## 1
Amino acid sequence: MIKGSRTSLFSRGSWLETRRIAEVLRKETIGGVLLLAAATVALLWANSPWAPAYEALRDWRIGPAAWHLDLSIGMWAADGLLAIFFFVAGLELKREFVAGDLRDPRRAAVPVAAAVGGVVVPALIYTLVNLDTGDGALRGWAIPTATDIAFALAVLAVVGRHLPAALRTFLLTLAVVDDLLAIAIIAVFYTAELSVLPLLGALVPLAVFGVLVQRRVRSWWLLLPLAAATWVLMHESGVHATVAGVLLAFTVPVVRSEKAGGPEAGRGLAEHFEHRFRPLSAGFAVPVFALLSAGVTLGGLGGLGASLTDPVAVGIMAGLIVGKMIGITTATWLVARFTRATLDEGLGWADVIGLAMLGGVGFTVSLLIGELAFGTGNPREEHVKVAVLTGSLIAALLASVVLRIRNRVYRRVHAAESLDADHDGIPDVYHHRLTPS
């Protein structure tokens, strides 16, 4: 594209990238189904006669006390298992910006701007709702800023099977950037006490890990202890331990070295790790976290009403349902308005609004931030969980209505775009992207 030419928002990417994104979406969709199942089990269990057993499991402490790791099972899920989740998210983001279609800054600007808008506006709405609430309510300003990758993609897979691949890529990248912004917020704003020596100590195994992966070392028996040491020292420093997952991911090379054949010789180490760890993240880590975090006691209609009328809960739901839609849509519109960018031919702003609504599904990371903001045992912890669950569900339902309508429009286009006249396994519409420019 020559300088000064127009950029097409959500244009069709390359066939190789489209195929890779489709594989990612399949795994995340399965993870989303497991997440929903785990959250449902948690809710039913926590409101059943066996609720004490659920609480006993969640609060059961295990681990070496000498290293300050005598944590509850719930804390192990939040601090440990979600580190795997953020490791995979970091790998995905780095690969997209180094070797994916988003290595073009003009294409990357759209999901990045949308993610920023989807963080800022919900935070502002929550803050406005709770300006006069007091009692530490403003500590929860970041709860409605996150988008749950697995949950959102599971909804998209059900209601939007025929939506253009570029829209799916946009949602995936938006959710990943969104989650990494959330982990930055956690590191900066939810670190109560910082111990400098353990933090500096964490840089040692992190650096060794980085040197080894840059040399394309894949031996798990060598890398896993270094990753664990980084996690332990990060946890000891007071910074939330999930930050270690992102930092480790950013050290992993994306493209094969020239000695190994370069980019054309197959997937690099980042994609190799992503292929190995994504099933563990989507199929185990996130569902287990949901099982141990979503179990909130509703206490009947009266208790549910009290939870939903708490200004903290109102701010969370308004941020997820309204703030996400306004923030993501407005940021995308601003990119189109103030740059030489237009929506790709055949797309409409209804598509963007539908995806923006789906961005309001803020399950996993929102629950994590809620625990960090108000702590366990705080009466508001239950209200936060109810608000996150309710807000995410309403956002998913509203998005489903819009995207199902758009899906009917694209169903007619899908058949034409799937034509493969020369039977080479690549749809004809992608052939022009495989030829050298």
## 2
Amino acid sequence: MNAEIISVGTEIILGDIVNTNATYLAKELALLGIDVYYQSSVGDNEDRLINAFEEGLKRSDIIITTGGLGPTNDDITKEVACKVFNQKMEIDKNSLEKIEEFFYKLGIEMTENNKKQAYFPKGAIILKNKNGTAPGAILKKDNKYIIILPGPPKEMKLMFEDEVKPYLKDMSNEILVSRTLKLFGIGEAVLESKIIDIINEQNNPTIAPYISNMELRLRITAKSDNEENANNMIEPIIEKIKDRVGKFIYAQDNISMETVVSKMLIEKKLTISTAESCTGGLVSATLINYPGISSVFMEGCVTYSNESKINRLGVNPNTLEEYGAVSEETAREMAKGIAKNFNTNVAISTTGIAGPEGGTSDKPVGLVYIGIYINGKTTVNKYILHGNREEIRLRATKNALNDLRLRLLEL
């Protein structure tokens, strides 16, 4: 089966609100094994909404709408759906009683136009609204379905979860299961070139590369009659991909980079300190996101000025004079200095030019050096990062944690 999502409301078309409903519904439908090939947004206009319904019903088994179920004249979704299906509406006494009860509990007088929300075509499945006054409905005609949901997300999500999802589960014989590989340190084009044959060979499972939060992800999705079978189909694909690009895969599904690195430090009983210049504390702040990191995280210093690099970290003034604050040599001494001062097994240092000003032809904006000290051995990596000031600092932080991850894998 396939479905189409129509979001109704002029406020969506004008950009006054962000359409989170469509995102939520698309994900939920995918998990139910129902394909979504089209999404659209339509204003509160009868002719355009009729056209959207008619076009959608030509290509989809199910149309799910959000919005346009209020008591005012411009709330027309239900009325238009009934017109398209040529179904007449009548008042549903049970729905009317619930609406009246809702207003009574609030101590507010119900206006006459709220009765509009209690009208439905005969035979429709009426969906309870536990967070508002507008019930939803499931309409059916000639093996086509229109599922009408309210617009406010807190009303729509609960109605979908409690009423629509069980109904759709009974209709669908298949489910989708997805696993996500999270990669860092490899470009999208390079990744595709290394696994293009695996991608091209697949139909079920399917492989979809995409970028999220400045890193690459591979979503492997299988369709089957149960979760166990789907996972059994996915696992061999994951192993194939690991054989090609395993070094760049740092986690699966919802595990973050800081979680991976923090667990490695704790399991190996390695203490850590950080000395940051261009990242301004983001490295230490990111590590501290992980509960339990206090057992190994000793100290984090933001040594932005040359004076603090000298006084706090013991960076040689001659190094700064000869090579500059943004240099391999300075990053190396920063990492060694913070590890020595706080007697830690591990240290991270960052120094760079985040911009938007301060770059030169030799040292452009985006130039970053990251030092990693582990038990007496220091390595420094050079990066040219792109983006605005915030993006460069975030990318530098991710690279710093990934550099540490790779070094820890060698132990």
## 3
Amino acid sequence: MPGDHGLIGPEELKRLDAEKRLARRRREAGRRRAETLERRLAQAEDLRPGGLARLSALLFGIGVHALTVAVLVGSVLLLFDGVWVLWIVALLGFGVVWQLRPRLGRKPGAGWQRREDLPRLFAVLDRVGGAIGAPTPSAVRVDTGFNASTQRLGLRHEPVLTLGAPLWQVLEHDERLALLGHELGHHVNGDAARGVLVATARHSLREWRVLLYPSSGGTRAMSGPAGLAQLLVPVVLFPFYILMTSLDLLYGWIQVHVSLRAEFLADEIAARTASTDSAVRLISKLDVHMTVASHLARVKAARKASRKPVPLEEGAAFWDGLRDYVATIPEHEYARQERVSVFRGTRVDASHPAHYLRRRLLKERPHYEATVTVSDEEWEAVDRELNPFIVEAGHRLIR
């Protein structure tokens, strides 16, 4: 879309113009795959990822972790060989295994709020989870991002929810319900890539590629046997690096056929929770994150120029100003952001489809009315509970 270059900033335009041919081909391939998937799902009876895709994700996770286990077993066997030189190799193997170990994340502790801290919010989460068959998060936290996310942490794999204060504050009540339906929907939308097996395997695969990258660049050239080893190591590592690159390509296929499809399904779950119209408006609000970021930058610059300490109460006033600002964003700005979404498309390694595709599919699928309702009085009670954390987030943003 050459005529749309005026939609994006000069830095992004410069980066795109300098993009290498392979990167450009990957970006266009991601766009084609996502658009093809959206057209197919518009007529599908069920948006849940297919069995073959989920089986591929399972095999991917098992395969990557099996390589790590093989290194661990080999290192243990070398310890019993009795040759001290091999003990050094075994220690290196243990170091590799430690670097590749699955990261489950720390269990929710400081900074996370439990049911007893936010009973009103958890009552709403219970209602949403009960309607869609999803577990209620065991903990919630508020951060400063214009986003929301859900994940599982710790050995018990506890579901947790993160609410970005800027996004939460600019959403209407029905849009908040759509947001909660979408996030909790990730626990029941068949996204195997979010499961502990595949997610930890993806991290291990990144570490494998870093360890096996066949390059000696940046190191001083050596002579003698050490120099020969310096030349041979990249050659020896290259086949293993190709194997890891192939696994990375498989993960890209899994993302298209599992993660993108599951993301579309999470949007439909949001529509069933709060109505199709609410889910569409939610995605449109997500589109103006850069506009909100510009407003935040102006507020921070003004506060910095005053050279006065930022009192905590100003964190509350900031949210009033942000809501008023978002209310004044004209419709043509939302239309422009949709064109930006079309221009950027979906990367081949993206876990989320482009916003224009998410809106398009919601409009092409059956229209849903809300199945969960929350009264204004209940939302006001939720706001009172969250207010200390929202104010503190606002204070962190502008100080």
## 4
Amino acid sequence: MHIHILGICGTFMGSLAVLAKELGHRVTGSDANVYPPMSTQLEAQGIELMQGYEPAHLQPAPDLVVVGNALSRGNPAVEYVLNKGLPYVSGPQWLADHVLQGRWVLGVAGTHGKTTTTSMLAWVLEHAGMSPGFLIGGVPQNFGVSARLGGTPFFVVEADEYDSAFFDKRSKFVHYRPRTAILNNLEFDHADIFPDLAAIERQFHHLVRTVPGEGLIIHPQAEQALQRVIGMGCWTPVQTTGDGGQWQAKLLSADGSRFEVWFDEALMGVVEWALTGQHNVANALATLAAARHVGVVPELGIAGLSSFKSVKRRMEKVAEVKGVTIYDDFAHHPTAIATTLDGLRKQIGDAPLIAVIEPRSNSMKLGAHRDGLPASVVQADRVYWYAPANLGWDLAATVASSSVPTEVCDSLEAIIAGVKAHAAPGTQVVVMSNGGFGGLHGKLAKALEE
């Protein structure tokens, strides 16, 4: 079968393409922006990529068109598909029908930590010899690929609350029907499609409604939004994590790199790993609970976590130049910025810490999270914010109240000059964006080299 994917370079759609290819289909795809790392992963798989959304890409007609959620009415390829009556489907629906059907699905949902926790869980199952399939919205370093079919009934999927397609406004995760569901946390996000937190809670309850009575739902005990979701009705056993929960961690080091795992007041073992931050400790507890549900004893799960390498672009060390360390991080929400910087601060002690932040997500561009930004960076010693001319709201006014020395820059050159002036040996620089940030990491490393 010839499948053509519209929006193929998105992390979800690109992973879908890998699975379709592995199933034996001929896969082609088009996107407005064909660029690495997804383009290189796809080309290595023998998948033909086309730049732009020309109707000519759909001639001769493919057997099926999978439409990404970034495409809307008015897009030339979408209009062609509709006018010619070509068969089309959303990405989540295709995944549900052709990959997840009949499998034990482990879904990881939540505002933060989905990609890391999905990667963690896939690795723990792999370490336990369970050869799971997975689809992850990033590239886990333990696997080096974002998706695979796997060799057993188990399939781990990053379960996103974003909508499915222009013709299906339900959250993607409603299609997945997990037997084991992790609900990591829940805050307001995706201001481009959700009016308020209550609207997102309703979508999460739609997910809860699909989990079977013989399944398991895992969530942090202290997360009030998730308590409200469960309170709307739950027909599935629940296990809780964190403060007051059945699964608890006792830190042996302040940065979260060593901690005890307790379940029902019994010590299960000690995790010693390369990750830091309270958020990753929380991700680990949820992972161990989910793995136990499919038969991985906590002791074996803990051993798996100890050899877990994080996901690309999650506090990934990308350069060390003249004693200055540069990290690449995906954080794009005040909570994620705060927890990431807090974890690094606890790891590095009093070393100088510079944060460089691009407010790039759709919610950030709409200014939905701006009130939380000044307080999110208190662990840094200096912050550079990137405010391109088309941002649409006054970033400088928003961060003027910050207690940390702050500069708002309208160019990468200004950021590089600022960092270069203040970075001495021992300085840690964290570059935060959910996009490519104009290749800032490499340019910064080169400038420091000079």
